Amino acid sequence: MSRGRLRRGVLALAVLIVGSTAGSGISVAEAGLDRFYRQELRWGPCGEAKLDAAKARCADIAVPLNYAEPQGRAITVAISRVSAGDPARRRGVLLGNPGGPGSSGLGFTAQLGDHLDIRDGYDLIGFDPRGVGRSTPLHCGWPVSSDLRSAGVDSVGFGATLALEAELAARCLARNGATQSFITTRNTARDMDVIRAVLGAERISYIGASYGTYLGAVFTQMFPERVDRFVLDSAVDPARYHVAMIQDEGAPNEAAFDVWADWVAARDGEYHLGTTGPAVRATVTGLIERAARRPIRIGEYEVDAHLLPMILFEGIREAKAYPELAASVRQLAQAEYQPVRPEGNLAEYLEQALRPKEDEAAEAIILCGDAEAPRDPAWYWRNIEASRASQPIFGAFANGPNACAFWQPPIEPPTVVGNAVPALILQAVQDTRTAYQQGVGLHRALTGSRLVTMPDRVAHGVMKQSSCASHAAEVYLGTGVLPAEDITCPADRG
């Protein structure tokens, strides 16, 4: 598709969006979207054990690839439905998104029903966002599972990172062309409104986690009249999406590393990585520096200074992962001196990261399609160098380039979120993925929201960590009543 045609499509789409937020909703007949909004679904078994056990039914919904050209190509969005357990108490439909971006959400709301008292009041609707899972997925043929990785310890590693990210972006463009430009958060929000209409609902309720909070916030801005009760757990600040959002991860991950290091030091008899937190940190930073000079050979894999920080990044996000991370680092330390085969979580991680069975480029396709990233390599290098003193392990990841630095420009600008739609926002002070200030930023943008703060645990995801917070979510979803003011909820003990 030519750039001129794309721009004309964006202009037509802008007219459509103005109509959708003027108070009367989308005029589907005028927009040419009536065939999507009025389609009939064919429900059947989901073919997934957990969904089938929950008595879910699944269907495919047709949506336009390009909402500005609805008579053009259509793609499918896979959805699931667990009907409300008590028809007398049913108040509507509840959609959800587990994050990513690029994560399957087909079973997300059904799983939430196992933890929250919401089954009687809502039809629980899961869906795979466009481009993901069973929803007309896109593939890029990447040799690795993610474009998010550390840029290394020096200029040589930085140059290698630039070369890899450029290759990954080129692979996606060569395989998908302009099609990938339409796999965006704004279009997924439009898909959600089609789902709403097809299900016969005037409004939707919603639970979003991590990136799912950004999707939810975008929906509130584009379709405020279609919003019922929104719960946003571990939030993204739309004003910092997505480059600054990743930069914000550096400091809390360094802090979380020190919590893990103290835990490991207290168990030095088992892991032999250091008897104090600073000693454990010195062991790990030394391991990273040596991996930059010569990758660590462990079994059939090689772990370099780009990958090792990402292993740490995965392992420090919550306390239940601490033993496996400690065991992984111990294996890597031993592998420097003797043949070692990876075991446990390390073996699983390396298999997934370096021998990807499924293409995981959906995350990059969505992030890069939503918002531009700086293209000047010097910009990244300056930020990396400035971060090294305070973020020696994670600064080169949080400030480094990803594939978006080499991507084609987005066809729409990022959504500016600012409205008074009610919402409940849950945020952990020690969140390593969406930093606490991200939740504060979203709370500021959604002036009708309330903020629930969990101050006392390293965690990404508040509802499963705090019964106080999950209770606040249940009350809001059940009654529509937000807390009278922002509140603090401690993590559960244990």
TrEMBL record:
Domain of life: Bacteria
Protein's UniProt keywords contain Chaperone: no
Domain AB hydrolase-1 residues, every copy: 94-250
Sequence intervals crossing the membrane: none
Residue span, Peptidase S33 tripeptidyl aminopeptidase-like C-terminal domain: 396-489
Pfam families: Abhydrolase_1 (PF00561), Abhydrolase_4 (PF08386)
Keywords: Hydrolase, Signal
Gene Ontology MF annotations: hydrolase activity
UniProt record similarity statement: Belongs to the peptidase S33 family.
Protein name, as recorded: Alpha/beta fold hydrolase
Source organism of this protein record: Nocardia panacis
